[in-house]
Amino acid sequence: MKCKTKREMKDPVASFNAKGSPVTIGICPVCGTKLYKMGRTEAHAGLVPPEKPVKVEKREGKLVVVESPAKAKTVGRYLGKGYTVRASVGHVRDLLKSQLSVDVDNNFAPKYRVPNEKKDVVKDIKKLAQKAEEVYLATDPDREGESISWHLMEAADIAPERAKRVVFHEITEAAVKEAFSHPRQINMDLVDAQQARRVLDRLVGYSISPILWEKVRGRLSAGRVQSVALRLIVEREREIESFVPVEYWSIHAELQPEGLKSTFTAKLAKIDEKDPELGNEETVKPILVDMETAAYVVTKVKRGERRRKPSAPFTTSTLQQEASRKLGFTAKRTMALAQGLYEGQDVGNGGATGLITYMRTDSTNVS
């Protein structure tokens, strides 16, 4: 029962409700019903409201974030139930395109934003990360991948202590499970290395690219590598143009040992213990006359063992070079095919299986 008669409250006591709002509790002096009045009074002065209880949501399941959808499908199949795998589809944050986005006066601090086309991706990952018991960032095992993991953590508000970084160099069941059994923290040295490279790209490209658009073709991008490479090519070309050709000759003799049918070729190295200066045909002719009547003797035989080793496993550059030389592939086509082999192909075992190790690398390590 609640007293509906507006009477003076008897024995009022200042207090706070469960939400921390000030209230006054007392009884009706006539019927004894408990009275309850909202609002702050003078009696509340000096009283400290209780702390609001923090609602702790129960988290369950494990969230895994990779870069590509194809990779997400394969990794999800290997990990099985209890794991939700999502793809970031590359970077989720980048420098603004409309401005330099690098504070040159403040230690070259970059200014990042989430592009419009990635906002839904980030929103989805953030929502899943809040509900997940564990969050695994399984982006590619290079500086770029490390940076994407860090950007994901920042953009999706994932606490650093909850983010676990896993790295695998091949998408096979054994490699994936081994990686998830040894998670680590994000390596900020690798992240800083990628940020330095990205900032340098922007500092160089933002000022040089407009020149390319004006002089060569629109939508071209000048970066830290292309600009320096062009400078080296120009300097080398100038050296070639300023080169003064000088005539020189060399003399070789085809010799056949006595009693053998095979021959070997020897090069003239010394004349009277001195290096010969064969600058023109007039100098060479008298020497040839002498050599035609000379007696040849083997004075020394050097025996040795020569070992030939197979070529090292491909790196990014040697893969592209060999594909261009042997198959006529462009670098873009080569890397697209390699990406498909890395992410996995159906080889008849119930799903995609990774067939090569990570191909964007200078390392020659293979499984």
Q: Which outline best applies?
A: elongated
Neighbour order of strands in the largest sheet: 5-4-10-11
Low-confidence stretches: none
Distance between the amino and carboxyl termini:
78 Å
Backbone structural class: alpha/beta
Helix and strand arrangement:
Blueprint: E1 10-16, E2 22-27, E3 34-38, E4 62-66, H1 69-79, E5 83-87, E6 94-95, E7 102-103, E8 109-110, E9 112-113, H2 119-131, E10 134-137, H3 143-155, E11 163-165, H4 173-180, H5 188-215, H6 224-241, E12 252-255, E13 264-267, H7 281-292, H8 316-327, H9 331-343, E14 345-346, E15 352-353
Parallel strand pairs: 4-5, 4-10, 10-11
Antiparallel strand pairs: 1-2, 2-3, 6-9, 7-8, 12-13, 14-15
Helix pairs in contact: 3-5
Characterise the protein shown here.
There is one protein chain. This protein is of the alpha/beta class and 367 residues long. The protein folds into four domains: 1-51, no CATH class; 62-193, Rossmann fold (3-Layer(aba) Sandwich), CATH 3.40.50; 252-292, no CATH class; 316-353. 35% of the residues lie in helices and 15% in strands. The strands form six sheets. Strands 5-4-10-11 form a four-stranded parallel beta sheet, with helices on both faces. A hairpin with a 5-residue loop joins strand 1 and strand 2. The termini are far apart. 16% of the residues are buried.
Features:
three-stranded antiparallel sheet, Rossmann fold, 367 residues, four-stranded parallel sheet, 4 domains, 35% helix, alpha/beta, 9 helices
